[in-house]
């Protein structure tokens, strides 16, 4: 049985029967999140927060609960791993953190540093988790919208399907690292992680990603965002410097792009062909960044729109009553954002990290700074959150049509690189 919705249901969505959802109070859901059952299959949703779920920002906790509420009764187990001593969800209880074939020296000895050390620590756990256990890795800032269980059943979870990886792509020659799904021992992710380890092992072992994008191992891979610039503390960062900063920040994406564009006859790997035949990806802007697309990456504008209340419905029976409030232009735009996301997107990625320096405050940063503002009943933000839990899209996003393209590199993956196992 499904209770009446407090919000209008956009076309293309259907209510999810309540017996398929976990609608218990937050405290009971949180108990399950902090005490997940042992890994027994591949329907795992992996997330990471170095200080643990209890220390996460409220809006991120709500994201994690949504994964659980939506999919736990379809057999998915949500685990938020951490690095807290004594925690049952410590990464060390799931992966060998002393193994140089799994983690670089900086991770193993606790010297991983830099302005974005926490983000890069998170980067380093996602491929090893998928390689060992399979399932999904998602950033805690990713708001789930689409039907993960159906997508999994029709791709990776279908033994007759050739599709082995699920993710998003920006241009068909890369993938986003904030949502990744695969079976165990995936050959694409195996090579991606081998390359990432080699980049970290350079110069006797790096402690930050600074300069990694200029490694000879990545020669031929285009750098990111060559048109952006910004000013900070009186200093202007030009397009070339910003491209290096962003490419170092998302070095995991650079490594994946190289492997996707690698043809290694000796190693039996044809990346462009593998991607065309075995990767399901959707356009990242439509599938996971639609709020930003509809607000031109204007975080304060997005925050203001999502904080608006919906027009009040009419009340009473007197003359002039009962018609309700007229929808303002801003409310109409906010409605377009909510309806667009719920109909067309698979998720929404709340942007943080380096992008704040380049583009200024984002919706995620403003939700973080204004605790609870994403969860106020009657607002467009709450409408979006309600729909994420209670409604299901009638169709899956469109798959990107990959082409077999000219490779970035021909030859062994680590030619001229470093013996990672010996580092």
UniProtKB/TrEMBL annotation:
<feature type="compositionally biased region" description="Acidic residues">
    <location>
        <begin position="316"/>
        <end position="328"/>
    </location>
</feature>
<dbReference type="InterPro" id="IPR008441">
    <property type="entry name" value="AfumC-like_glycosyl_Trfase"/>
</dbReference>
<dbReference type="InterPro" id="IPR029044">
    <property type="entry name" value="Nucleotide-diphossugar_trans"/>
</dbReference>
<feature type="region of interest" description="Disordered">
    <location>
        <begin position="310"/>
        <end position="333"/>
    </location>
</feature>
<dbReference type="Pfam" id="PF05704">
    <property type="entry name" value="Caps_synth"/>
</dbReference>
<protein>
    <recommendedName>
        <fullName>Capsule polysaccharide biosynthesis protein</fullName>
    </recommendedName>
</protein>
């Amino acid at each position: 049985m499904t209770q009446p919705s407090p919000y209008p249901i956009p076309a293309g969505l259907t209510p999810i029967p309540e017996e398929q959802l976990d609608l218990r109070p937050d405290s009971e859901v949180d108990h399950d999140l902090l005490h997940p059952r042992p890994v027994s299959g591949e329907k795992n949703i992996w997330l990471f927060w170095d200080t643990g779920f209890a220390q996460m920002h409220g809006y991120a906790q709500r994201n994690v609960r949504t994964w659980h509420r939506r999919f736990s009764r379809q057999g998915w187990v949500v685990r938020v791993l951490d690095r807290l001593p004594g925690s049952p969800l410590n990464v060390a209880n799931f992966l060998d953190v002393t193994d140089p074939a799994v983690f670089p020296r900086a991770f193993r000895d606790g010297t991983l540093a830099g302005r974005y050390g926490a983000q890069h620590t998170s980067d380093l756990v996602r491929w090893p988790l998928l390689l060992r256990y399979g399932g999904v890795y998602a950033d805690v800032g990713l708001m789930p919208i689409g039907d993960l269980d159906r997508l999994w059943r029709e791709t990776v979870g279908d033994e007759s399907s050739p599709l082995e990886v699920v993710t998003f792509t920006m241009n068909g020659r890369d993938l986003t690292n904030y949502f990744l799904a695969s079976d165990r021992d995936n050959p694409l992710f195996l090579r991606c992680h081998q390359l990432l380890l080699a980049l970290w092992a350079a110069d006797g072992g790096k402690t930050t990603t600074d300069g990694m994008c200029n490694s000879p191992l990545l020669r031929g891979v285009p750098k990111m965002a060559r048109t952006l610039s910004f000013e900070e503390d009186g200093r202007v960062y030009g397009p070339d410097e910003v491209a290096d900063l962003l490419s170092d920040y998302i070095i995991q994406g650079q490594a994946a792009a190289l492997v996707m564009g690698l043809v290694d006859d000796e190693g039996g790997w044809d990346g462009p062909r593998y991607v065309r035949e075995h990767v399901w990806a959707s356009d990242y802007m439509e599938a996971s960044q639609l709020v930003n697309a509809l607000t031109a990456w204007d975080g304060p504008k997005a925050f203001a729109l999502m904080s608006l209340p919906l027009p009040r419905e009419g009340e009473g029976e007197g003359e002039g009553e009962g018609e309700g409030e007229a929808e303002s232009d801003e409310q109409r735009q906010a409605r377009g954002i909510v309806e667009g996301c719920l109909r067309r997107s698979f998720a929404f990625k709340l942007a943080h990290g380096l992008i704040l320096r380049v583009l200024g405050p984002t919706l995620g940063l403003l939700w973080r700074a204004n605790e609870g503002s994403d969860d106020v009943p009657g607002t467009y933000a709450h409408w979006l959150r309600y729909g994420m839990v209670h409604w299901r899209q009638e169709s899956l996003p469109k798959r990107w049509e990959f082409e077999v393209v000219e490779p970035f590199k021909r030859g062994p993956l680590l030619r001229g690189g470093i013996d990672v196992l010996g580092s």
